[in-house]
UniProtKB/TrEMBL annotation:
Catalytic activity: dihydroxyacetone + phosphoenolpyruvate = dihydroxyacetone phosphate + pyruvate
Entry protein name: Phosphocarrier protein HPr
Keywords: Transferase
GO cellular component terms listed in the entry, alphabetical order: membrane
Gene3D superfamilies referenced in this protein's UniProt entry, alphabetically: HPr-like, Phosphotransferase system, mannose-type IIA component
Amino acid sequence: MTVGLVLVSHSAKLADGLAEVAAQMAPEVPIVPAGGLAEGGIGTDYDQVVAAVQRADRGDGVVLLYDLGSAQMTAELAVESLPDPEAAVVADAPFVEGTVAAAVAAQGGASRADALAAATAAGAADLEAPAATQGADAESIELVLHNEVGLHARPAAVVARTLAGMEADVSVVLGDQEADAHSVLALMSLGARKGDRIEIRARGAQATQALEAVKGLVEGNFGEA
C-alpha cells in the first residue's frame, strides 16, 4: 500500500497534466486528478473531490493538494464529509512543487505525515549542500550526463528514490551550485543538462555504495531508452 494523492484544481486540464507528470516520477502512487466542474467548466466540484479521495485511498491515507483558495475550501469540505476524516489531509503547499515532492516521498514508502511534510516544504527547495557532504572524509566522483533530458523530473526522482534509506548524505555539484541529492526539486533546480559534468559528493556509512548507485544510474542513462 502507499499514500494516495488527490489534485484539486479549477481546471481539469491542469489537474490531469500535473497528475501525468507526477506519475512519471511515482508510478506506484495513486494520483487522482479532480479538476473542473462536472459539466466541464472552470471551477471545483465537491462530489468529484470526494470520489477522487475514495479512489486514491489504498489504506495508507490521502494527501490533497489544491491550486487556488476556493479549491482549498472544497478540499477541506470533502475531507470533513468522509466517514473517517482522519484518513485524508489537505496540504498547504505549492500545487506543482508540492505534488511532485509528495509523490516522490510516497513512492519511497513515506507515511502520510511524511508525504504531507514533503509537500509543505517543497516551496523552499534548498540548493545549499548538506554540511555532512563537505569535509576531509567525504568521498566524491565526477560523471558526465549522457541522457537526453539531464537531471530533470524523472531522472531526479530516480536518484532521490535510489538514495532513500541509505546511510549517507549525498549532494550533486554543478558549477558553483550544490544540491541535496535526496531532494527532487533541488536536483531539478540545478538545471543539469546532457553533456554537463557533475560531481557527486557523499559522506556516511554507505557513502561508497551511494556513489556507486548514482554512477550506475548515470551510466545507464536513468533507464531511458
